[in-house]
Automatic annotation (TrEMBL):
Keywords on record: Cell membrane, Cell shape, Cell wall biogenesis/degradation, Membrane, Peptidoglycan synthesis, Transmembrane, Transmembrane helix
InterPro entries: Beta-lactam/transpept (IPR050515), Beta-lactam/transpept-like (IPR012338), PBP_dimer (IPR005311), PBP_dimer_sf (IPR036138), PCN-bd_Tpept (IPR001460)
Protein name: Penicillin-binding protein 2
Domain Penicillin-binding protein dimerisation, chain residue ranges per copy: 71-268
Pfam families: PBP_dimer, Transpeptidase
């Protein structure tokens, strides 16, 4: 009977429910947990099949096979005629070594070191006296025995451009050197006449690309996961580092070829399966005309030889209506076929678009970008006319100086020239600093106040391409140094000195674009260095058309007033057969023994139907009329011979006489 005591006082059905309730809850929890687990498994299986499946299949198929990229044939860069190759790829035979063994242990490394010494001796024997031949230590470095730069299955480049004797030797002895291969590849060559070398740029091995070089960051990030062999960069592949070589890297490169190689568990090759040849890159037809470019380069070289302090010079010639840059010279230059960084570190960059010193003695010499000086005065007058600061016929009494501030500081004209009563037009011709200060700088300040006055000046400058990107198809463009934005001086001082070109530094390219705007009455044309891109068969893939970046609005009367003022006498243009507009400039930097006078000159011709605009800068050249204008004259003459400033090519004078 005791066994029934526990049910005393409780109906049988209630006790049943009490026992079943917790059992049902546990069962429900079990089914729910099972549902969740199976749902996760089903989801994971679906994810593996449909999402990760292709990746796993690809990894499995390539586990024992690797594609070794073969560098594509880089496309050429031609001058404007499409006939003269300024940069091109030339086939050469190169020596590679394929590592069939793991040389990371000491025993194997000794074998590799012996091979390196033997190869170095062979190179020395075939090239006596040539110090550029790789020695044993350099060869060991190129073999990358520790696989720090490349996988073990990737052939190591030991030496490019083998001589005929070296090719014959290694082909004959290849059975004695396991893993040695003589392969054809391409090396980059440049016109021996050194045509616009900083514009064209240069190439270097992909493995030398800095991680900070933004043009290649995406390529480096995707290199490990890139499935398209044609887009894989090999470590020894030559890529653009500057100039057009860098700007048009993607177009010039083409597509990699590749060798499919069987590998073992150590990532070392066991044999070659398949060879897919590389595809040639596109060719560029530049706007640079070789004849005009060489004339510009020679003109700068001739002038800086005559000048006592000048050691550099820069010039840009740009077509007014198309934006085509027919010449862009940065001198001195260098031989791109003989690269030696220590010798060329101050000349390999493009001084027409970048700012850098000419040598190690930075305090003594001006950089490539200088204060623009009086060439700003046509724009100062335009601003004054548009803002109603004065009228075209209004006279100003020029005493040879203007007075600034309460202390009565005098800012003088060049040579303290007294010009008497002058109009705006005459102020440009006589290059009056006093007029610009009193009639433009001070009056702009009076109209807008300090902050807004400087802002208004800055607005005009940038609308003319000064202080902003020109849009030139080159990397690393310097945008200018706007000293009038620096608030350590009063707004009066900044606007006064800015009005005659002593408060901002701009590149020669920016000055050329500004000059085209003076010529075509306000259209800021996008400058181009490439006019066409063609495929390997010569078909035009892309053609660059003239593009107006922005347009400023001034009345024809204002434009004409400025053009009539751009008539400063320059003896270097004596006998020039066209009416032309010009403005000389001399900017000053520093004081006392460190004072530098930089020559600047802008011009366009013909005056009434402008075809070409030219800007020239000669740091430490003195007066622009003396140092820079002769360079511009020779550029105009060269353009007239090749294209004709009136549309009719004149040909060379000696050809006419014949």
């Amino acid at each position: 009977m005791p066994m029934f005591k526990r049910f005393k006082g409780k109906p049988p059905n209630e006790d049943e429910n009490a026992v079943n309730k917790p059992s049902t809850a546990r069962l429900n929890m079990f089914f729910f947990a099972a549902f969740v687990i199976f749902s996760i498994l089903i989801f994971r299986l679906a994810f593996v099949q449909f999402v990760e499946g292709p990746e796993l299949t690809y990894m499995e198929s390539t586990r024992n096979t690797k594609d070794i990229p073969l560098a594509p044939v880089r496309g050429p860069i031609y001058d404007a005629t499409g006939k003269v190759a300024l940069a091109y790829s030339e086939p050469v035979q190169s020596l590679y070594v394929l590592l069939y063994e793991d040389y990371r242990n000491d025993d194997r490394r000794q074998e590799a070191e012996e091979l390196a010494q033997e190869l170095a001796d062979i190179f020395k024997r075939f090239n006596p006296g040539d110090e550029k031949q790789p020695d044993a230590q350099e060869i060991i470095k190129r073999l990358d025995l520790d696989h720090q730069k490349t996988f073990g299955y990737v052939p190591r480049l030991v030496k490019s451009d083998l001589s005929t004797e070296e090719i014959a030797y290694f082909m004959e002895k290849k059975t004695e050197y396991p893993g040695i291969m003589v392969l054809e590849e391409n090396v980059r060559r440049y016109d021996p006449d050194r045509v616009a070398v900083q514009v064209i740029g240069y190439t270097r091995e992909f493995k030398r690309v800095p991680t900070t070089m933004k043009q290649y960051q995406t390529i480096m990030q995707q290199s490990a996961s890139q499935r398209d062999p044609g887009l894989v960069y090999s470590q020894d592949e030559k890529v653009g580092f500057d100039g057009l070589e860098l700007q048009y890297q993607q177009e010039l490169r083409g597509r990699s070829g590749y060798q499919s190689i069987d590998i073992d568990s150590r990532n070392l090759p066991t044999g070659t399966m398949e060879l897919t040849p590389p595809e040639k890159g596109y060719s560029l037809i530049s706007t640079i005309n070789k004849e005009i470019q060489l004339a510009a380069q020679q003109a700068i070289t001739d002038e800086i030889r005559k000048l006592p302090k000048a050691i550099t010079g820069y010039a840009v010639a740009m077509e007014v209506d198309t934006g085509n840059v027919v010449a862009m010279a940065s001198m001195p230059d260098y031989d791109p076929n003989d690269w030696d960084y220590d010798k060329i570190k101050f000349v390999f960059r493009n001084g027409t678009t970048e700012s850098f010193p000419p040598n190690d003695n930075k305090p003594r010499h001006a950089e490539s970008v200088v204060l623009l000086g009086s060439v700003i005065k046509p724009l100062s007058v335009l601003i004054g006319l548009k803002e109603g600061l004065f009228t075209a016929g209004q006279t100003y009494h020029d005493k040879g100086y203007a007075v600034l501030g309460k202390d009565g500081r005098q800012v003088k004209n060049s040579h303290s020239a007294y010009n008497g009563n002058i109009t705006a037009r005459r102020a440009i011709e006589k290059s009056s600093n006093a007029f610009m200060i009193d009639m433009v700088g001070k009056r702009l300040l009076s109209k807008y106040g300090g902050v807004k006055g400087v802002d208004k000046w800055d607005e005009y400058m940038k609308s003319f391409g000064l202080g902003v990107s020109t849009g030139i198809d080159l990397p690393n463009e310097f945008l200018g140094r706007l000293e009038y934005r620096e608030e350590h001086e009063t707004a009066l001082t900044r606007l006064a000195f800015a009005s005659f070109g002593q408060q901002a530094k701009y590149t020669t390219m920016q000055l050329a674009q500004y000059t085209t705007m003076l010529a075509n009455k306000g259209k800021r044309m996008e400058p181009h260095l490439v006019k066409e891109i063609r495929d390997a068969k010569g078909n035009v893939v892309k053609k660059f058309k003239p593009k107006v970046l922005n347009e400023v609005q001034f009345t024809d009367a204002h434009w004409n007033e400025v053009h009539k003022g751009m008539v400063t006498k320059v003896s270097s243009f004596d006998g020039f057969p066209y009416e032309f507009a010009r403005k000389t400039g001399t900017s000053e930097q520093g004081a006392g023994p460190n004072k530098k006078e930089n020559g600047v000159f802008i011009a366009f011709a013909p005056r009434d139907n402008p075809k070409l605009a030219v800007a020239v800068v000669v740091p430490e050249g003195g007066f622009g009329s003396v140092s820079a204008s002769p360079i511009a004259r020779k550029i105009f003459d060269a353009y007239d011979e090749v294209y004709g400033l009136d549309g009719i090519p004149k040909g060379k004078k000696d050809q006419k006489q014949e």
